[in-house]
Predict the structure.
Amino acid sequence: MSTNNSIGASIASGLDKIHDSWGWFFALGIAFILLGSLCILGNMTATLATVLAFGWLLMVGAIVALIQAFQVHSWSGFFLFFLSALLRGFTGYVLVRYPLAGEYGLTMLLASLFIVGGVFRAFGAGALQFPQWGWSVVSGIVSVALGVMLLTQLPIASLWFIGMAIGIDFIFDGGSFIALGAALHRVPSGRSLARA
């Protein structure tokens, strides 16, 4: 019986912690929405910042891979990690040194991924015809259209697209955090369950 009481107390304590933190999720959601709005309003700056941050992260990853290469004792392992470090380092350097070319290349890569992914999604959903498969076909067609639009608007689209996409992602993430905070606020706390 004491085991059931300790489990119940543990669950009530966990519910209290979750219930009491609803405001933090709500505040984080608002912050994400504000940050996303800033990214959309300053989409060219956000695109540049994203490409530079990605380049620096690749260079840091290259240093880590280089350290890993020298810690591997077999020749084949060293060669693989060394090549990985060189590729990451070179790509990161190019993105930091030539960010406009990096914006162009990343936007072209994203457009290609949208086209290929959209074609596979549309044809796969049409072939499998699972429940509500029409929505997946529509989603695939929209992805293909977005990819084609980006490719036809290059190089101008490379200046704003990445920043706008990140801004939209921040806004949707913020909305989900606000919804989570509101749902947590409605969940009864462990204290109220213990009184009931």
Observations:
- The chain is about 90% helix and 0% strand.
- The mean pLDDT is 84.
- The CA atoms of residues 70 and 78 lie 7 Å apart.
- Helices lie at 2-20, 22-41, 43-71, 75-97, 99-128, 133-152, 156-186, 190-195.
